């Protein structure tokens, strides 16, 4: 990997880079956090332009999904469980936090495995876990589903809103206007799916990629290697070998493959992306809340008129979330940023979750 360089030396090398500004995207909330927290985006200007992509799974959870989850909270003897960030995400009108304040039984869990204990402790209730996340979270959800079946727990099910990173990246790169030349690949996802999963970005799209860890130095190092190899179209390097192997975590991959198939998925602010979702396989269908409660989340082939209007509504409100999620704009490009839209009063999805680009930018006042 070459000789050890201090951050100052790597930054100096970036500043000596010739030619046009180099546009690099990252698609992971933890990378966004490190970049904003340490002002890395400012430190590498004007040679590098950094953009955040759709790395926050909560931000891209569709309004449809939230509305259906809200409907479930109204059913007698149901306990809804999920991760904390999900409570503030709005559906078309309300969020789960408002339902909780109305007395509906909604509980925050740290891991889906806790839903198993809850189901055992409340055999007279139905427990539903709202499962969102990327390939990082999918294996633990798969494990919880397997465990539920092994223990013959019939009062537990999972409402799946998980997303796959590769089809989302393809969707972005298939847009000829994207202008992205480099990608900092998400280290957490890569630790599960392996280095090979991301090679397509260089092989198929000629975009350079580096798999990186989450410390400020890791991010600067990723930018340094990308800039050093700027002229090599499709340069690829794994700088996070301590956690990311070439093939990935086989046990986690097998778990995902055993329990899930892929399906189309609806992403908030973007629309439907082919193959970007997870869907519980037939063998485990008993644990699929969308089947048990006939939620039809997988029927995402068409957007309703209402949903199309909502997308147009977002644009009319001047929220540029769609462009931010697709790497075409930055939070400060939005006229509502920090004024009408703040973490206390979010207008768009990127301000809702602590992992959203707008929320992170606002936190560090950049
Ligand atoms: Fe959307 Fe708010 Fe971000 Fe603007 S600041 S893009 S309204 S989330």
UniProtKB/TrEMBL annotation:
Pfam family membership, one: HypD
Keyword entries, A-Z: Iron, Metal-binding
GO molecular function list: 4 iron, 4 sulfur cluster binding; carbon monoxide binding; iron ion binding
BP term (GO), one: protein maturation
Database matches in InterPro entries: Hyd_form_HypD (IPR002780), HypD_1 (IPR042243), HypD_2_sf (IPR042244)
NCBIfam families referenced in this protein's UniProt entry, alphabetically: hypD
Family: Belongs to the HypD family.
Protein name: Hydrogenase formation protein HypD
Species annotation: Anaeromicropila herbilytica
Taxonomic lineage from the root: Bacteria, Bacillati, Bacillota, Clostridia, Lachnospirales
